[in-house]
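re the bet — no i am not wrong, look at it urself. input seq straight from the record:
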Amino acid sequence: MRGDYQKFFVSFLFMLLIAWTISCSGTPEKKPETAVHPASVLMDETAMKLIKLISPEENTAFRLKDRVKVVIGLTGKDRVPDSVMIYFDGKAVKVIKSQPWEYTIPSDFTGTTGRKSLKVTAYKGGKSHNTITRFMIVYSDIVPGKYGYKVIHTYPHDREAFTQGLVYDKGVLFEGTGQESGSTLREVELETGKVVRQHNLDDSLFGEGIALFRDRIYQVTWRNKVGFIYEKSTFKLINKVFYPMEGWGMTTIGDKIVMSDGTNVLYSFEPEMFTVVSKIEVYDNEKKVDSLNELEYINGEIWANIWMNDHIARIDPVTGKVLGYIDMKGILSEQERKSDTDVLNGIAYDPEGKRIFVTGKKWPKLYEIKLTE
């Protein structure tokens, strides 16, 4: 019996050892998590905030050259910032270091139309504590003029040309056309409408606006985000350019090329590297002017076709405001329209003869016009 007892005792100790090993090597007992009350988080965040922006409110409307009064409030008497920095449209305007916590932004900063950002940042102890950003809209300070037209002369135009860009240069018309599997760059004889020379774009490309810069022609595409630079005299491809937005209309102002993208924004590009150097947002006295398409620079103004519209906008290239609208309704008669006749599009200017030419997509005629009031 003694031997059996010893065996039983040894087995019992062995089982205890296994049980102890398993209990020690198992998942450690978790300590209860300390709950964080939402109110304490909110309290910490609030404690960090030193200021609040009282005015202007979000999307407040201003006019060109208006002054903008900024009024800042403190979140508590014991939370006074060392300084508050004010930014307008991305530019530093003023540092305020004491009461009253307000400042009137000069009219120089509201010299262009568009949606502008206002940002205020509070600093204390060398650190920024809170930043508030709001947006406002600067509209034109004038009511746009209203103009009509008078047809001076009519020229033939290729009815199959889906006109996207039009340039007049020393007796010659250059025309860019669009559509899938049919986009071209053309040299056209003004008097007859005859296509003298034509370069066909790849079928994958939808051609858009063109612009003449020195001895080169620039042509952009719609959604392919690639453009082409040609030798004007031969249409030989010199280079390609790339851009991040859609390409619509183009024109040249001095040493810059201006392009639309179908919105109310006009971009100025440096021609060699084709990088954006500036932009304007186009507004009249009531609204932003969207769907800007074909462009032409005429006597210090940008003239822009408005897509799906019979109006041409006359735009100040410095401020972005609309100076006037030209109502072109009825220039192509209903009798001359076909089922595939598209919208008014295409403006060219002869600076020597002071002649203005307009046409449209798949229109049978090109018109020389003068404005009427």
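see?? The CA atoms of residues 201 and 310 lie 29 Å apart. told u. also Residues 41-139 form a domain with the Immunoglobulin-like fold (CATH 2.60.40.10). so pay up
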